[in-house]
Amino acid sequence: MTQKQDDISPWQIISSKTYYQNPWIKIDEYQVINPAGNPGIYGTVSFKNRAVGVVPLAENGDTWLVGQYRFPLSQYHWEIPMGGCPLDEDPAACALRELKEETGLIASELMPCGHAHMSNCITNEEGFVFVARGLEQGETEMEETEVLTIRRLPFDEVFAMVMDGRITDALSVLAIQRIRLLGMA
């Protein structure tokens, strides 16, 4: 059987060791022979969930953002509604659940909008984004770790926030720019 170019790794793994693991991530270190033929190390972070985001679009073109303090960055951030999707859960079902939990919105229509590898030099994390339409307002169901502010804004204002750097979350930037590029809003 011949391998495709994409399947041939220039790295040789000598050994691996897991240094840390919790319900969300696993950190491994590999002893390797690098592409130049020299010994080295490579560290990876494996995620036990996928990132899923959803951009709710109202009939008038408005969308909703959630604001929250992000512990790793020690900063408050504006983002699209999103969350972690267990590997055995359908990303679309997760998107609908996260939308309801964080904003109270219930969508009758959900369209895929993109798929990305979030930082493929060190992690296997995947991100999926969706556009939600046919929205009905319900009650939020936030998790105990979430203290969110919800804002409804015109899509053009949200796009401006991406372009001027007020929104920096990678999945949010990807979704908002893709929606604008595809003329979905």
Automatic annotation (TrEMBL):
Family, per entry: Belongs to the Nudix hydrolase family. NudK subfamily.
Molecular function in Gene Ontology: hydrolase activity
SUPFAM superfamilies with a match to the protein in the record: Nudix (SSF55811)
Keywords for this protein: Hydrolase
UniProt protein name: GDP-mannose pyrophosphatase
PANTHER family: NUDIX HYDROLASE DOMAIN-CONTAINING PROTEIN (PTHR11839:SF18), UDP/ADP-SUGAR PYROPHOSPHATASE (PTHR11839)
GO BP terms in the entry: nucleoside phosphate metabolic process; ribose phosphate metabolic process
Cofactor: Mg(2+)
Key word Hydrolase present: yes
Organism of this sequence: Thalassolituus oleivorans MIL-1
Catalytic activity, as annotated: GDP-alpha-D-mannose + H2O = alpha-D-mannose 1-phosphate + GMP + 2 H(+)
All residue ranges annotated as the Nudix hydrolase domain in the record: 47-175
Record carries keyword ATP-binding: no
